[in-house]
């Protein structure tokens, strides 16, 4: 049975070595993908444009409480006749043909404009909402990038695993053929090995398609045609969460989550809208001033130049507007109540989601250990099954099933590891950790050596 013992080594090593050829992700690769996505992703570019647009609400609002200055220059050409009576009842007529140039400059400065002040408050809140929404879009980009990146890593892991499984299954099939040729095996064993190989080949082909799709998804985000991603290290040990308690994570999330902040700014904007609507009942006082220069203003002032300066106060007192102001106030109060309810709902939903993610991460550590035990046990079981086959206690079908379990355990462990990393990313995003810090943290998790707490 020397041939069998050699084959045992090949099959056992296949599950250990085939994926170990690529040891661990090089540090900084996820950060590079993120930097590329910031420049390439169309959704994020749209978010930047939306932020730039939203930030203009404040200068637009400030214009309502700042002075406005207007200059006017005109020149009128006058042609016609002038008829007038003279002594003795006679009349005379003169032809008119002259130009009347005018230049003026006027100033209006609000002294009391409660509507304008409320509008500035509202614009400040709107800008805050735009900036918080942009942070949300940035976190969403990190989320989408992580999904694509980790899916690609998982797909490539599965491809390598199934490729190694194909080689192991081919070796087992060849072994069954030689045993049959030497009179030690049966046709049934050869057929089982061939059928198992065909199934594994089909799974490998499917994994190749999934890997191609995962690469295209990542490339569409980053615009990079990255080569094969180096896989996660075999000795992956997730660090403990900091802070360590659920309450601290929830408090951190409520204080820093951009979605909650955006809702808070909407409440502030709605409150300012109430004040702005109430200002419809209030008077408005403006300082008005003007300077003008005109020549030939009328027929009676031909060849005369007039210079005028004026300054004064203008008071506008609203008396009745058909109930529009009252309706606007009622509407604004209702909108504020709606905004407050949505803000409260956002905070409660966030606390629930943070709790879920925290628990998933805590239990995920135990799951990872369990999957590692499953992999170790499946390898040990494979060795025992091969020895049992050599002594005639196990069949070829038992060996093929043991081989399948080893590689399936490898893929299950990889899936659990990538899921765990992604759940940590989601928790950090929900807690309002800045996107750049989240990316650095994930890069450290994917790197072979980590000092992250």
Explain what the structure shows.
The protein is of the alpha+beta class. 66% of the residues lie in helices and 14% in strands. The chain is built from eleven helices and four strands, in the order ααααββααααββααα. The protein has a four-stranded antiparallel sheet with strand order 1-2-3-4, with no helix packed on it. Helix 1 runs antiparallel to helix 9.
Helix content: 55-70%
Structural class: alpha+beta
Taking pLDDT < 50 over at least 5 consecutive residues as the criterion, the unreliable ranges are 1-6, 20-25, 449-453
Number of strands: 4
Secondary-structure element order, N to C? HHHHEEHHHHEEHHH
Radius of gyration: 39 Å
Counted up, domains total 2
Brief summary of the model shown:
By secondary structure, the protein is an alpha+beta fold. The chain has helices at 2-17, 29-40, 42-54, 57-62, 114-181, 187-222, 246-256, 258-278, 324-390, 396-430, 435-446; strands at 68-85, 91-112, 284-295, 305-316.
Mind sketching the topology for me?
Elements: H1 2-17, H2 29-40, H3 42-54, H4 57-62, E1 68-85, E2 91-112, H5 114-181, H6 187-222, H7 246-256, H8 258-278, E3 284-295, E4 305-316, H9 324-390, H10 396-430, H11 435-446
Antiparallel strand pairs: 1-2, 2-3, 3-4
Helix pairs in contact: 1-5, 1-9, 2-5, 2-11, 3-5, 5-6, 5-8, 5-10, 7-9, 8-9, 9-10, 10-11
């Amino acid at each position: 049975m020397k041939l069998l013992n050699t084959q045992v080594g090949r099959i056992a090593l296949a599950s250990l070595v085939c994926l170990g050829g690529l040891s661990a992700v090089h540090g900084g690769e996820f950060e590079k993908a993120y930097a590329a996505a910031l420049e390439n992703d169309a959704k994020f570019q749209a978010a930047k444009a939306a932020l730039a647009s939203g930030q203009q609400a404040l200068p637009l609002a400030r214009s309502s409480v700042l002075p406005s200055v207007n200059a006017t220059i005109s020149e009128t050409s006058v042609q016609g006749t002038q008829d007038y009576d003279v002594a003795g009842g006679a009349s005379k007529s003169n032809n008119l043909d002259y130009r009347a140039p005018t230049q003026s400059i006027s100033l209006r400065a609000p002294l009391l404009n409660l509507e304008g002040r409320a509008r500035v408050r509202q614009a400040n809140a709107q800008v805050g909402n735009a900036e918080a929404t942009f942070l949300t879009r940035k976190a969403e980009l990190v989320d989408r990038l992580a999904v694509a990146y980790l899916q690609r890593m998982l797909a490539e892991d599965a491809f390598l695993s199934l490729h190694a499984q194909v080689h192991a299954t081919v070796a087992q099939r060849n072994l069954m053929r030689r045993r049959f040729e030497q009179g030690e095996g049966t046709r049934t064993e050869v057929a089982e090995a061939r059928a198992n190989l065909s199934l594994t080949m089909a799974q490998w082909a499917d994994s190749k398609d999934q890997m191609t799709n995962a690469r295209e998804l990542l490339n569409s985000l980053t615009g990079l045609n990255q080569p094969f991603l180096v896989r996660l290290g075999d000795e992956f040990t997730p660090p403990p969460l900091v802070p360590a308690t659920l309450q601290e994570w929830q408090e951190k999330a409520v204080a820093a989550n951009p979605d909650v902040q955006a809702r808070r700014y909407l409440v502030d904007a709605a409150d300012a809208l109430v004040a702005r609507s109430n200002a419809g009942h209030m008077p408005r006082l403006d300082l008005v001033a003007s300077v003008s220069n005109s020549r030939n203003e009328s027929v009676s002032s031909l060849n005369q130049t007039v210079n005028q300066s004026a300054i004064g106060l203008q008071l506008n007192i609203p008396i009745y507007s058909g109930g529009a102001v009252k309706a606007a106030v009622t509407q604004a109060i209702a909108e504020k109540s709606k905004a407050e309810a949505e803000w409260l709902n956002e905070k409660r939903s966030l606390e629930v989601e943070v709790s879920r993610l925290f628990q998933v991460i805590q239990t995920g550590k135990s799951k990872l250990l369990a999957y590692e035990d499953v992999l170790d046990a499946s390898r040990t079981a494979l060795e025992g099954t091969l020895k049992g086959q050599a002594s005639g206690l196990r069949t070829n079908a038992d060996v093929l099933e043991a081989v399948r379990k080893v590689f399936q355990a490898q893929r299950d462990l990889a899936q659990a590891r990538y899921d765990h990393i992604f759940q940590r990313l989601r928790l950090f995003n929900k807690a309002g950790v800045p996107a750049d810090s989240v990316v650095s943290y994930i890069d450290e998790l994917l790197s072979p050596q980590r000092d992250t707490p």
